[in-house]
Amino acid sequence: MSKPVPWRQWLWLNLKIGALSFGSSARLFLYEEGVVIERAWLGEEDFRRIFLMTQVLPGPNLVNLCVYLGFALRGAGGALAGLIALALPGALLALLLVFFVNLNQPVIARLFEGFSLASVALFSVFVWRMARGLARPQEGSRLKTVARGLIVLGVALASLAALPLLGILAVGVVAGLVAESLP
Amino acid sequence: MNLEWQIFWVFFKINLLSFGGVFGVLPELERTIVVEHQWLTHERFIQSYVVSQFLPGPNMAMCPLIGYWVHGWPGWVAGFLGIYSGPLLLMGLAYALLRRYGEVSWVKRLQKSIEPLVVGLVAASAARLFWLQSTDSLAGKLAALAITASGVWLHRCRKWPSLPLIFALGIAWWAATAALIDGFTFM
User: Fold this and answer.
1) B137 in reach of chain A (CB within 8 A)
2) Contacts A131 to B, Cβ<8 Å
3) Of the candidates A135, A54, A162, A179, which has an alpha carbon nearest to the alpha carbon of residue B19?
4) Could you tell me if B158 lies within 8 Å of chain A, comparing CB atoms?
5) pLDDT for A66-100, tens place per residue?
6) Rounded Cα distance, B71 and B62, in Å
7) pTM for this prediction
């Protein structure tokens, strides 16, 4: 980052995600869109490193990503302000919803199901980009790429089969280290 | 310990146990809140989860709501601070450590090694979200697949921006399900 990221734009991005985005963790891609694709505050590779790290540490993953990006782009104040802009709208809306809206109405339920499915669609595009990044021809042989691909597949299946997460993490890290040591 | 601190502490602890979203910690959160502290009934707890599915932003927004139900506005504040202060501390620590040691070769190597692991986990969570959000019948699954695929196409090939796309598909899905799955039972 050569020049500091403008406060207003950083807060606005978080507020937009905090107040207008539906569809649970499928929302993660919105940060890539806001930070890398639209504004080029971070390079693809930097974002990738940050994203990966925030996802293996414990905590809500969208919040982790927001806070870490805040630290990286604007320091501790940026992290705090970004977090508040991201989290406050939902926390207040929760109260409005329980006070005023009947959520069992089929119309509303369907609308939100649709929001979630659309987010899943955008999220899969994002996951695909992340997966494509694993096949870097400049570093290492095809064998290494295949090994990485197999780990992705194995981890995804293990996670879908609801195997214990800590086990998956442990095996995944070890397998990753082995794959990286391939030629 | 007074109630505010108890609420704060319950959510702060949940943070440290949660990997990859709210689904993983839901059982533990329920055990703590419904069984251990008996702050809410099981039905009320489920309701808080349902509400959180309707909210924009992080899906932990159910935590301040639970706090509110338990102890009014002070509870809301305790829930908010409890769930969100953890990431602030942990990410701050991670940021400081990586700035200091990020260029050390084994740290870089470790970061590279976890890549396939994380990609696998997020891919699984995408699949799981799809499965949870689509209706149980076969027609429902196919319709959901069609709307998801059209979302991918609109985004990748037609360059639709994300938020308008989400709203447009939400409305399309409501219309399609009203016609095909719910059998024209409007309202």
Assistant:
1) no
2) 119, 123
3) A54
4) no
5) 999 999 999 999 999 999 999 999 999 999 988 88
6) 14
7) 0.84
